[in-house]
Amino acid sequence: MVQRIVEAAQIESLDQSAIPRLRMPERATVFAARAARLLQLADASNPISGYLHLMAALADAQQRVLTNFHAPMPSRESIELNQRHSMPIVPALTDARDPAWRDVLFMLLDDIDAAGALTPALVQLVVRLRTTDAAALDAQADAILSLRFAEIDPAAAPFIMAALQVVWTDLASRIDMKDVPYLDTPGVCPVCGSVPVASIVRVGGAYEGYRYVQCGLCATELHVVRAKCSNCDSTKGIAYHAMSAVDARDEDKTELARKAPLKAESCDECGTYRKIGYQDKAFDFEPYADDLASLTLDLLMGDAGYRRAAPHPWLWPEQPKDER
């Protein structure tokens, strides 16, 4: 079979109306697929194998909770208001956040607890989260969604984010994509207003060969032209980096990078990178899972002078303590 390579200029000139703008999350499988992929990637050679196993259990718990969870949908008036103002249709940063998200958090903790084999540190964390008051939990949710790093509790954040993900993925899975407005801000989810984690070039049907960035909160995927930086929209200074090519001979680097199922796409205009996976090279590729499991590639990109376009919601860096 001969593959047709589409050049960047050709991609930009395509009729954008023929390309599906959005790919809404598949409610019945979204977290289950993520859990399965995390387990695939959690082999003994992965430096965070144990953590990936824990996060796979958390994703499994998310799928079980999502099955019977239904958040209140936005009113028609709210939808039309957000459409007129080019705002996310169900914004995550809102004073009207459904308090049921905290119930979801406790259900996830119960599920993880029931799975057993918790480490002492994790047992303490579960107890601490269960006894944290509502205002403090909401404050943590606000800090996470606003990316206020200094205020985020890195140990608790993945579980809080997991609960928020259930709520907004539920909403996204039931929203009519025709209601989702176009936003003026590049690289922002038009459903919830959050930032993407990683991107995927999909295979099959209407999505064949197109790149989608996956929202880190609601799992909605937004089409972004492959010739552009998914963070700043620039078409200049785009480059691709792959772990398999790092130690290779110069004459082999290009070929190894071409075959890699996961790369880091860097942009010299904004100095950031975001990972991109190719489903034709790894059919089970799942942006959220593969991004989390490829910490070594993050270290490589940091050494090269690039910073992540957005943090992974399940892996927050420890912030330096104020020694004053």
From TrEMBL:
GO terms for cellular component: cytosol. Residues 228-315 form the FdhE C-terminal domain. Keywords: Cytoplasm. Gene3D superfamilies: FdhE-like domain (3.90.1670.10). Residues 19-182 form the FdhE N-terminal domain. Belongs to the FdhE family. This is Protein FdhE homolog. It is found in: Cytoplasm. GO terms for biological process: protein maturation. It comes from Caballeronia ptereochthonis. Residues 188-226 form the FdhE central domain.
